[in-house]
């Protein structure tokens, strides 16, 4: 489907020269003088090469239709990450560069949204929050209430984050999967 370049957003998939590209960022630039342009950064799905393109905002680009479906995470191996479609039990393998920075937050049986083009996964969306255990942090300081000062901690998935002073080693906490930041103590 052909659309104008200024309507392209992050996460869209474009077809150019017979290859598929996932949009990493799209910015419309309106200089004081001259023609407005759309600056689009994309990653080629087949080999992960990043490219940057500049189009006039009225240029036509080929946008590919993407289907989003829920999948359950099964496991990771040397070939990539394996997910299962809950209704048909079809398994799909997703390349490591598609999962990217989300990899440490994937947990067994976690339900994620995969953006699929035909049978190829082009993008992944994790739940907003994940519950993890603190495996290493400074000891709890007696009498210190939840103040604005945070201390460093290492989570069970290896990610470093900052937690309030009252959180100790072995405590399960809820973090944002987007950046690993502390949300609250887990209620389980």
UniProtKB/TrEMBL annotation:
One annotated GO molecular function is: translation elongation factor activity
Location in the cell:
Cytoplasm
- Translation elongation factor P/YeiP central domain residues are 68-122
Protein biosynthesis: present as a keyword of the record? yes
**Cross-referenced SMART domains:** EFP (SM01185), Elong-fact-P_C (SM00841)
Which residue numbers delimit the Elongation factor P C-terminal domain? 130-185
Which PROSITE patterns does this one have? Answer: EFP
Question: What InterPro entries does its record include?
Answer: Elong-fact-P_C (IPR015365), NA-bd_OB-fold (IPR012340), Rib_uL2_dom2 (IPR014722), Transl_elong_fac_P/YeiP (IPR020599), Transl_elong_KOW-like (IPR013185), Transl_elong_P/YeiP_cen (IPR001059), Transl_elong_P/YeiP_CS (IPR013852), Transl_elongation_fac_P (IPR011768)
Entries under Pfam families matching the protein: EFP (PF01132), EFP_N (PF08207), Elong-fact-P_C (PF09285)
Key words, A-Z: Cytoplasm, Elongation factor, Protein biosynthesis
Q: In which pathway does it act?
A: Protein biosynthesis; polypeptide chain elongation
The UniProt function text for this chain reads: Involved in peptide bond synthesis. Stimulates efficient translation and peptide-bond synthesis on native or reconstituted 70S ribosomes in vitro. Probably functions indirectly by altering the affinity of the ribosome for aminoacyl-tRNA, thus increasing their reactivity as acceptors for peptidyl transferase.
Q: Which family does it belong to?
A: Belongs to the elongation factor P family.
State the name under which the record lists this protein. Answer: Elongation factor P
Q: Which organism is it from?
A: Rhodopseudomonas telluris
């Amino acid at each position: 489907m052909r659309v104008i370049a200024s309507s392209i957003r992050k996460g869209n998939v474009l077809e150019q020269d017979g290859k598929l590209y996932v949009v990493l960022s799209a910015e419309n630039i309106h200089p004081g003088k001259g023609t407005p342009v759309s600056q689009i950064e994309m990653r080629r799905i087949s080999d992960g090469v990043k490219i940057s393109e500049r189009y006039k905002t009225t240029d036509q680009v080929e946008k590919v239709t993407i289907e989003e479906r829920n999948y359950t995470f099964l496991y990771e191996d040397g070939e990539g990450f394996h997910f299962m479609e809950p209704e048909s039990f079809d398994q799909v393998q997703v390349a490591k560069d598609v999962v990217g920075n989300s990899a440490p937050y994937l947990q067994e049986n976690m339900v994620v949204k995969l953006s699929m083009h035909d049978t190829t996964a082009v993008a992944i969306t994790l739940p907003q929050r994940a519950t993890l255990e603190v495996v290493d942090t400074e000891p709890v300081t007696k009498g210190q209430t939840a103040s604005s000062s945070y201390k460093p901690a290492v989570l069970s998935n290896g990610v470093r984050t900052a937690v309030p002073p009252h959180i100790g080693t072995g405590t399960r906490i809820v973090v944002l999967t987007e950046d690993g930041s502390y949300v609250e103590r887990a209620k389980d």
